[in-house]
Amino acid sequence: RNRARTSELRLTFAGLMSDSPSDQPVVLLVEDDGLLLMEASDTLADAGFTVVEATHADKALKVLENRDDVGVLMTVVDMPQGSMDGFALARLVAYRWPSIPVLVVSGMGTPGPNDMPEGARFIPKPYEPTTLVRTLQAFLRRAA
Fold this sequence. Notes:
The protein contains five helices and five strands; from the N terminus they run H-E-H-E-H-E-H-E-E-H. By secondary structure, it is α/β, with parallel strands linked by helices.
């Protein structure tokens, strides 16, 4: 039963994607909870995205400094490890890499007026996998 459901989800995601997987950008996924990181990473990979994982902001910055193919940053807000939270990471990425769109997710409430950089998007947790994929795709289409 689960197997049928998984392939149904994959078909749904496949229908949302363009014909060429190489058209899909690399998503830098920053999540400190291992299970949530795995779930979000699997969801995005099943939808055709290339996913690079980081468990806190400092690791994410190292990825950005060493790769030039990151197409979008998706970060959680609350990260106990590292030198900054997701809002600070979002603002820094918007400043240093203005071409990289930023998606912030959190279960801790909605962002305040100066929390997020201009143009960033916010999704409250918990989110449906299809909502995540559709939001990322729409966001990236507008950023292109």
